[in-house]
């Protein structure tokens, strides 16, 4: 069965190229709320930035018990590298920030940041 070892090698190279093209894309590089963090003083704004200017398409803050937080967000019409989103007062809860943004090359990327407020 001489073909067998070729298949995993091919798969590995496909995975590698998929990964490296993903790395080439714009991504979130800074955030004042770290994923997995526990916050005793919730910030008044969510400040985050990308490795290149993006159009911010979606941003929501979902509390596990408190439901969706009212965030004053409208999709941006121009590209920016950094965004500051005002946050409402966040009660003790587990939250997930979900964001979606479009890079200059048209690629849409998205991600989530989980954090806990414990005052
Ligand atoms: Cu891209």
Describe this structure in a few short sentences.
The protein has one helix at residues 6-24, and strands at residues 28-31, 37-39, 45-63, 67-68, 80-86, 93-103, 108-117. The protein has 119 residues and is α+β, with helices and mostly antiparallel strands. It has a single domain (27-117), classed as Immunoglobulin-like, CATH 2.60.40.
Structure description:
The protein is an alpha+beta fold and 119 residues long. The protein has a single domain, classed as Immunoglobulin-like. It has 1 helix and 7 strands, in the order H-E-E-E-E-E-E-E. It has one helix spanning 6-24, and strands spanning 28-31, 37-39, 45-63, 67-68, 80-86, 93-103, 108-117. Strands 1, 2, 3, 4, 5, 6 and 7 form a 7-stranded mixed sheet that branches. A hairpin with a 3-residue loop joins strand 3 and strand 4 (67-68). It starts with 5 loop residues before the first helix and ends with a strand. Residues 15-22 have low confidence and may be disordered. Copper (II) ion binds next to loops.
Proportion of helical residues:
10-25%
Number of domains: 1
Query: What is the CA-based Rg, rounded?
Result: 19 Å
**Which shape, going by the Cα principal axes?**
elongated
Structural class: alpha+beta
Question: Which regions contain 5 or more consecutive residues with pLDDT less than 50?
Answer: 15-22
Q: How far do the termini sit from each other?
A: 63 Å
Which strand-content bin applies to the residues? over 45%
Oligomer: single chain
Tell me the CATH architecture.
Answer: Sandwich
CATH C-level class is Mainly Beta
Mean pLDDT: 86
Ligands bound, unique:
copper (II) ion
Main sheet overview: 7 strands, mixed
CATH level 3 topology: Immunoglobulin-like
Order of helices and strands: HEEEEEEE
């Amino acid at each position: 069965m001489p073909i067998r070892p070729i298949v995993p090698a091919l798969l590995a190279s496909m995975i590698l190229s998929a990964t490296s093209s993903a790395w080439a894309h714009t991504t979130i590089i800074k955030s004042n709320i770290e994923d997995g963090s526990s916050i005793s003083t919730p910030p008044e704004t969510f400040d985050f930035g990308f490795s290149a200017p993006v159009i911010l398409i979606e941003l929501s803050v979902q509390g596990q018990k408190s439901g969706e937080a009212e965030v004053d967000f409208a999709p941006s019409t121009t590209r920016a590298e950094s965004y500051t989103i005002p946050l409402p007062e966040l009660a003790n809860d587990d939250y997930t920030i979900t964001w979606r943004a479009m890079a200059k090359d048209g690629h849409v990327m998205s991600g989530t940041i989980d954090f806990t407020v414990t005052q």
